[in-house]
Specification:
With 505 residues, the chain is an alpha/beta fold. It is built from 16 helices and 20 strands. The radius of gyration is 24 Å and the shape is globular. The structure holds 1,4-dihydronicotinamide adenine dinucleotide (NAI). InterPro entries: Ald_DH/histidinol_DH (IPR016161), Ald_DH_C (IPR016163), Ald_DH_CS_CYS (IPR016160), Ald_DH_CS_GLU (IPR029510), Ald_DH_N (IPR016162), Aldehyde_DH_dom (IPR015590).
């Protein structure tokens, strides 16, 4: 039981945890893999040790999970919103109570710093609490028609929804997808990234403990194959996906075959515009928040930092000073602010981007190297020093492609008109940001940037009340906020005749 792994967390340190519990969950319990074949090792990023083995679910297991979700859906969808809310609030309470233990387990599997993981878990329970609050408000409309006839609409769930997650926010993504789904009366089968399989099943156990019907939130483990089984399954009504653009396109294609609804939360290469009238210290802090959370592996990061030419020297001096001072190392230590990247291949990929940037003429002002902490147990970890690149141009690879690592590209600009054009010259459109003291400019820039979010005088804050999602290739549909109810429900119109049928025939 998860209790046991969570209960070992208070004393756990980096490099000491192994997980042998099975990581699938349906019918209200952990389920052993049917066959222990095609095992994939799951690593602890801070040490490079094997944390556990992942056994991908095949078609029979996926089918079993979906059927168990469907049975739960039939019970759950008949409850009043207020009844669902009560169970969800209990789940939120349990998460809040175990927050530090869950955060620790998340760090061991993901490599991010404990301070950040604690925030992630807080955002997860807040999201469940928020949608619990909305569950009781779901309602339709009443429309009067001629002759006393009338119509009304019912907001109904979709059925079994599939959630497919990325590895950068494992527990939080599972909460962001399941909370609105469950609030609307749906069930969910969730597939975490095969690199971070460990905490979604803790969420499943907590929902169960809070009182959801068995099967309401299931976890199937696996990679692309298991994910495509979910997308193709005829009993899945909707797929909500977080991940890369190429995979998102495949998910949409597969879902189209069954006319399933999709929400796609994909990658980005977001611009951050810093005008010369900005409060410089805040702008610098904003640029760090826009680039270095979760070792830079954040989809909405503002990795193209456009700085107005007049303030470039002061900005660079301050940003480099603060970047060099980021405490890097054992992610379970409270003082650490940057941990390890998710995997060796991801680390190598990010380092290659830095090399490529140098070849194309960028100047490394700091970082961009592999980092070996002095603690011997961290020698095999996937660490690199956070990097600031100067002398960047819009046509460079590091400015055009999503790096998904701690690499900030800084570019000079002269005018507002010019920088908006350059900022929008991308196929992505997830987020954007602007620092300025000029209130009219701030709103004008926000209006003109082609992105799903624009942060004014801050960056990367994501309160659960606020919708989150992309423009252009960064996807569509939204997570968080009231609007997400629309993406997990459908409207039924009921038309009521009060007189005789006026037939044309
Ligand atoms: N917009 C957003 O909210 C976020 C976007 N991302 C994006 O995700 C990427 C990094 O995450 P990864 O896990 O490497 O992305 P990925 O696209 O490789 O995988 C995402 C998920 O899809 C699954 N998957 C892979 N192939 C599949 C297929 N053919 N059918 C169904 N499922 C499949 C994976 O197993 C994983 O669970 C980055 O590009 C990043 O920008 C990451 C986090 C948040």
């Amino acid at each position: 039981m998860s209790q046991s792994i969570l209960d070992t967390m208070p004393g756990a340190t980096t490099g000491t945890v192994s997980i042998t519990d099975s990581l699938n969950f349906w019918d209200g319990k952990r389920v052993k893999p049917r066959e222990e074949k095609n095992a994939e090792p799951v690593f602890e990023p801070a040490t490079g040790r094997v944390l556990c083995q992942l056994f991908p679910c095949g078609s029979e297991e996926v089918d079993e999970a979906i059927k168990s979700a469907h049975a739960a859906y039939q019970k759950w969808s008949k409850l009043a919103g207020m009844e669902r809310a009560r169970v969800m609030l209990e789940a939120a309470r349990i998460i809040r109570e175990r927050r530090d233990k869950i955060a620790k387990l998340e760090v061991i599997n993901n490599g991010k710093s404990i301070t950040e993981a604690q925030v992630d878990i807080d955002i997860a329970w807040q999201c469940i609490e928020y949608y619990a609050g909305l569950a009781g408000t779901l309602a339709g409309q009443h429309i009067q028609l001629p002759g006393g006839a009338f119509a009304y609409t019912r907001r109904e769930p979709l059925g079994v929804c599939a959630g497919i997650g990325a590895w950068n926010y494992p527990f939080q993504i599972a909460a962001w997808k399941s909370a609105p789904a469950l609030a609307c009366g749906n069930a969910m089968v969730f597939k975490p990234s095969p690199m971070t399989p460990v905490t979604a099943v803790i969420l499943a156990e907590i929902y169960k403990e809070a009182g959801v019907p068995d099967g309401l939130f299931c976890v199937v483990q696996g990679g692309a194959e298991t994910g495509s089984l979910l997308c193709h399954h005829p009993m899945v009504a909707k797929v909500s996906f977080t991940g890369s653009v190429p995979t998102g396109k495949k998910v949409m294609e597969m879902s189209a075959k069954g006319v399933k609804q999709v929400t796609l939360e994909l990658g980005g290469k977001s611009p951050l515009l810093i005008f010369k009238d900005s409060e410089l210290e805040n702008a610098v802090k904003g640029a760090l928040m826009a680039n270095f959370l979760t070792q830079g592996q954040v989809c909405c990061n503002g990795t193209r930092v456009y700085v107005q030419r007049e303030i470039m020297p002061q900005f660079l001096e301050e940003v480099v000073k603060r970047t060099k001072a980021i405490p890097l190392g054992d992610p379970l230590l409270n003082d650490t602010r940057m941990g390890a990247l998710i995997s060796k291949p991801q680390l190598d990929k990010v380092l290659r981007y830095v090399d490529q940037a140098k070849k194309e003429g960028a100047k490394v002002l700091c970082g961009g190297d592999p980092f070996v902490p002095s603690d011997p147990k961290l020698k095999g970890g996937y660490f690199m020093s956070p990097c600031v690149l100067d002398n960047c141009r819009d046509d460079m690879t590091c400015v055009k492609e999503e790096i998904f690592g701690p690499v900030m590209s800084v570019l000079p600009f002269d005018t507002e008109e010019e920088v908006i054009k350059r900022a929008n010259d991308t196929t992505f459109g997830l987020a954007s940001g602007v620092f300025t003291r000029d209130i009219a400019r701030a709103h004008r820039v926000a209006e003109n940037l082609e992105a799903g979010t624009c942060f004014i005088n801050n960056y990367n804050i994501s309160p659960v009340e606020v919708p989150f999602g992309g423009y252009k290739n960064s996807g569509f549909g939204r997570e968080n906020g009231q609007v997400t109810i629309e993406y997990y429900s459908q409207l039924k119109t009921v038309v009521v005749e009060m007189g005789d049928v006026d037939s044309l025939f």
